[in-house]
Amino acid sequence: MLKISVPATSANLGPGFDSIGLALAMPLTVTLLGPSQDWQVEHPFGAAVPTDERNLIVKTALSLAPDLAPQRLKVTSNIPLARGLGSSSTAIVAGLAVANELSTKPISKNDLLLRATELEGHPDNVAPAILGGLVVATYVDQNVQAVQLPIPELFASVYVPNEELLTSASRKALPVQLPFKQAIAGSSIANTLVAALATQNWSLALTLVEQDRFHEQYRAKLVPALATIRATAHAMGIVGTYLSGAGPTIVTLGTQVDLKNLQAKLKQNTSLTGQYHLLPVDAQGIKVDKS
Ligand SMILES: Nc1ncnc2c1ncn2[C@@H]1O[C@H](COP(=O)(O)OP(=O)(O)O)[C@@H](O)[C@H]1O
Ligand SMILES: N[C@@H](CCOP(=O)(O)O)C(=O)O
User: Fold this and answer.
1) Domains and CATH numbers, the chain
2) Is 213 part of any known ligand binding site?
3) Distance between CA 265 and CA 263 in Å, rounded?
4) pLDDT tens for residues 262-271?
5) For site-directed labelling of 279, which of 38, 103, 156, 165 has its Cα 20 to 30 A away?
6) Is residue 82 annotated as involved in ligand binding?
7) 246 CA to middle of ligand 2, Å?
């Protein structure tokens, strides 16, 4: 039996728009149950997600290996769809891995990263989903470069609103151009964030995570919980809250103790009706179990 596991990811970490991402210990798994007449996907996502060759996992597998014989796949996942935790990246990465495992000509991990980035459009979810941990990556002129940083000694408090927000819709809220001065400020904050993460200066990193200049201000109206959670955390002396990916999920990074206290406080706020998770970082990325 072949089982592929791909972690959820939280992209951007504030200023690292389209380039920084963190893998979280909440996996999607795909088990290959064997050949079949047609592609069949058993999954927990409801009627909106196809169960045949139109399923994103299968479509992605066939984009890499068009001649693959149909299979029965069983998918399990607690990653909510269209909430900013990289669900589409898990499907894309899992689909490429399915093709790679069944194909006689598997591609390398680097090519897998390039393919996954081409399909997703940006590398900040697919790179940590493949490599694990904290990854900084760039995709410019069809080239991907990805660098793994030390695994942060941090947990993630994850607040998932009940409403979906498609990444495509959330990107429509972004401006076409930024004033030069704003771009320089955003880039200097992002660069310093990367330096803080690379040198494991977590307290500076958590401060800079909140200083994005590229996207959060434009998306804030779509995600009122961001301001609420950030303000609640600040009142408790906790810094490190950002919009996860394109939202609407809000992540706060910090110690397990602080984040447990934060969640206890947030749960008293009746306007926050979504779901909570307290997750460690996933250090491994994609796993293929051939037992
Ligand atoms: N495991 C999956 N199987 C099939 N389709 C999926 C899966 N995960 C995500 N998708 C597709 O991707 C869409 C969400 O993608 P996106 O808007 O990028 O949100 P996210 O922030 O969760 O990645 C879903 O509405 C669904 O169409
Ligand atoms: N950098 C992207 C990240 C999208 O992540 P997702 O988890 O919402 O798909 C963006 O901010 O649009």
Assistant:
1) 2-149+282-289 (3.30.230.10), 155-279 (3.30.70.890)
2) no
3) 5
4) 999 999 999 9
5) 165
6) yes
7) 4
Contact between residue 146 and residue 129 where contact means Cβ atoms under 8 Å apart? no
- CA dihedral over 256, 262, 263, 264, signed as positive or negative: positive
246 pocket-lining for ligand 2 (C-beta < 6 Å): yes
- Interface ipTM > 0.90: yes
Q: Does ligand 2 come within 6 angstroms of the Cβ of 17?
A: yes
Cα–Cα distance, 113 to 108 (Å, whole number) = 9
Alpha carbon of 97 to ligand 2 centroid (Å): 21
Pick from 76, 86, 112, 109: which is nearest to 18 by CA? Answer: 86
Is 89 annotated for ligand binding? yes
State the pTM of this model.
Answer: 0.97
Give, in order, the Cα–Cα distances in Å from 148 to each of 193, 197, 282: 14, 11, 13
The verdict on the CB of residue 18 being under 6 Å from ligand 2 is yes
- C-beta of 248 in contact with ligand 2 (< 6 A): no
Residue 8: alpha-carbon gap to chain centroid? 5
pLDDT band at 121 (very low <50, low <70, confident <90, very high): very high
